[in-house]
Design brief:
By secondary structure, this protein is mainly alpha-helical. The protein has a domain of 134 residues: Tetracycline Repressor, domain 2. 74% of the residues lie in helices and 0% in strands. The protein contains 9 helices and no strands. Helix 6 packs across helix 7. The protein is elongated, with a radius of gyration of 19 Å. The termini are far apart.
Length: 192
């Protein structure tokens, strides 16, 4: 008779996600994961597969959580400018009690050049993020908040590049004031 799981998969996946986020893929060992997740090695393999598969699932979990937070924040926004400001603030300030930077950006920098799965996940995330930004820009252009001198898709590509840069810089000792200045300059640019 098979034993039932004695842990919540999402809870232990969140623990693995946080560890990968803090340490990166290469630095995180299976022993680290077993200890951090609080489950037996066999349970880890049976539930999540090998380290690489667990890492990909952690990336997905991170993407789902960030996307849910961004969608909720954008929906609460009354203007396109407010929605875009929310996104920039989220990229700079992150979430309370979370590692700095972005698991997806960190993973792309660490692994995308040699790991097709990580590259594919990051590319998919870029496409979704740029689409979200494009919709906000179109909203702002329609309401007269943002310049119509540029194509909304091109502005979305530009702003996504700023967004990724902010997330990468947020992991360093760069002052948040500087990151907010960069975001504000980008806002001024698209406002025209």
């Amino acid at each position: 008779m098979a034993r039932s799981k004695e842990f919540d998969e999402n809870v232990v996946l969140d623990k693995a996600m946080r560890l990968f986020w803090e340490q990166g893929y290469e630095k995180t060992s299976m022993n680290d994961l077993v200890e951090c997740m609080g489950i037996h090695r066999r349970s880890l393999y049976d539930t999540f597969g090998d380290k690489h598969t667990l890492f990909l699932k952690a990336m997905d979990r991170f993407g789902e959580k960030v996307n849910a937070a961004l969608v909720a924040g954008v929906k609460r926004s009354k203007t396109a400018r407010e929605a875009l400001q929310f996104i920039f603030n989220f990229m700079i300030d992150g979430q309370i009690d979370s590692p700095s930077g972005c698991l997806l950006v960190n993973s792309a920098v660490e692994l995308a050049a040699r790991d097709a799965d990580v590259d594919a996940k990051f590319t998919k995330m870029i496409t979704a993020a740029e689409q979200q930004l494009k919709e906000i820009i179109l909203w702002g252009q329609r309401d007269g908040e943002f310049t119509t001198d540029y194509d909304a898709g091109e502005l979305a590509e530009y702003l996504h590049n700023v967004r990724v840069g902010l997330r990468a810089m947020a992991r360093t000792s760069v002052a948040k004031e500087k990151l907010h200045r960069i975001a504000n300059t980008s806002m001024k640019f698209i406002e025209g």
